[in-house]
From TrEMBL:
Protein name, entry field: Serine aminopeptidase S33 domain-containing protein
UniProt cross-references to InterPro entries, sorted A to Z: AB_hydrolase_fold
Domain of life (superkingdom): Eukaryota
Length: 327
């Protein structure tokens, strides 16, 4: 497959509704170098740090039917369709990849999903990955674009396949996709793989491993890494930004603080990793509690293999079957 053309950059109009103080703005300016580093660590595709040439050399692709659409805020989102020719099912899985590589380089996961009792897998590429347009990450633009892209993909698929139902599946940062769209009436359930509910743990790991020793020493003289990571996360991905082109949505700092109404009785299967170096186990338990409080049925299955862990094909088939039994 040909490599994607240079990704276009789409400006996103945003409004600050946070009433941030002048001292907070001053802190943001001081943290600016770390916010750029955090953006690159958390979303390397949007930051232009995905090496597609290396991915093509080191990993097999699963050639898809690729297309793209333009959202209501002007961003372009790419998606890939993989059809299960032997299935008579009316269920489609929409997959949101993690931050290290786009959909077409996730052959193992795609193949396992296609072996389930489903009609197709549709992979949507996150902002800035593959053919999805990049956006500036400041002033909440990245989170607004992510929500616009996720909504547009789901709307596109429900229009294209009006007789189908949908299971949402997200790996790592793909959690924000399924958790934010679970209330859609055509969505019957979700699968969360190494579910991530906040950027703080990723940013803390980056601060502990990627910052110069002198800077680390200076940080620890002022505070601990956890407290500093919260400050950097808030500066990188601010809350309470809106866009006039996307009414009804305000940024949450890429934090899953709650689950929207309309998910009562829907089945969610979570596959966290026991030895995940980025996600504390408490975060997974908090996510389960929020889902159950909203009325979801939650199945939790621990895997092994760190943050790159994937459920086995058998586990995925069981997860899909469990969701289908709820219907």
């Amino acid at each position: 497959m040909e490599l994607p053309q240079t990704t276009q950059v789409t400006e996103v109009e945003t409004c600050d509704n946070s009433h941030t103080s002048s001292s907070a703005h001053a802190l943001h300016r001081l943290l600016l170098p770390l916010t750029h580093l955090s953006h690159r660590s958390f979303f390397p595709g949007n930051a232009g740090h995905i090496n597609y040439d290396r991915l093509c050399r080191g990993r097999d692709e699963l050639p898809p039917k690729t297309d793209k659409i333009t959202t209501q805020i002007g961003t372009v989102v790419g998606f890939h369709e993989y059809t299960n020719e032997n299935s008579q099912s009316n269920v489609i899985v929409i997959l949101a990849h993690g931050n290290t590589r786009p959909t077409r380089f996730m052959k193992d996961l795609l193949s396992s999903l296609l072996d389930c009792n489903i009609k197709a897998v549709v992979g949507r590429d996150f902002v800035g990955y593959d053919t999805s347009s990049q956006v500036p990450f400041h002033n909440g633009a990245l989170e607004i674009a992510a929500h616009a892209n996720d909504t547009a993909i789901l709307d596109k698929m429900t229009d294209k396949y009006p007789d189908c139902q949908f299971i949402l599946c997200g790996r790592s940062v793909g959690t924000f996709f399924w958790a934010g769209q679970l209330q859609h009436p055509k969505v019957i359930g979700a699968i969360g793989i190494v579910p991530l509910t906040s950027p703080v743990a990723v940013i803390q790991n980056m601060l502990e491993t990627s910052t110069p020793a002198l800077l680390r020493h200076s940080i620890l003289r002022m505070t601990d890494f956890s407290g500093f990571a919260h400050a950097v996360a808030a500066a990188t991905f601010p809350s309470n930004y809106t866009s006039p082109k996307l009414p009804g949505f305000a940024t949450k700092g890429f934090e899953i603080e709650g689950i929207d109404p309309g998910v009562q009785g829907k089945q969610v299967v979570l596959f966290p990793s026991q030895d995940d170096e980025l996600i504390p186990k408490g975060n997974v338990e908090d996510l389960r509690c929020r889902l159950e409080k909203a009325g979801c049925k939650v199945e939790l299955q621990w895997t092994k293999g760190g943050h790159r862990a994937l459920p086995s094909p058998f586990q995925l088939r069981e997860a899909v079957d469990l969701i289908l039994r709820k219907e």
